[in-house]
Amino acid sequence: MSLQAAEAAPALPARATYDCGEDGSITVEAMQSAVRLVEAEGTSYDLPASPPTQASRFGEGNVALVVEGGEALWMKAGREPMTCRR
Q1: Which of 2, 35, 46, 68 has the fewest Cβ atoms within 10 angstroms?
Q2: How are beta strands 71-76 and 82-85 bridged, if at all?
Q3: Is-contact 65 58, C-beta < 8 A?
Q4: pLDDT at residue 75 above 50?
């Protein structure tokens, strides 16, 4: 990764909680090349970077997470995407 790319994509905080309004909240824990996302009711997902070189897009199967700045877009098949904020 070039220095410019590293500066353009700041690292995720080690652990952050995002408020999704009436949909509750999600907690995102950054791992080496993946994140662990935990929904308010306790369901958790380990999502690899997608593609593997990404630092802000994660997903596998029918779930995906895009994190940019203080916002997280949480997408799950069969449900409206949720925009959540730190």
Answers
A1: 2
A2: antiparallel
A3: yes
A4: yes
Average pLDDT score over residue span 58-75 = 96
* Per-residue pLDDT at 69 exceeds 50: yes
Q: Flag whether pLDDT at 1 surpasses 80.
A: no
| Mean pLDDT, rounded, of the chain | 88
User: Does an H or E element contain 5, and which?
Assistant: helix 3-8
Residue 36 CB-density burial (10 A; 0-12 exposed, 13-18 middle, 19+ buried): middle
Long-range contacts of 1-7 (CB under 8 A, 24+ apart): 1/53
Domain count, the chain: 1
Which domain covers residue 64, as residue numbers?
A: 3-85
Assess contact for 54 and 67: CB atoms under 8 A: no
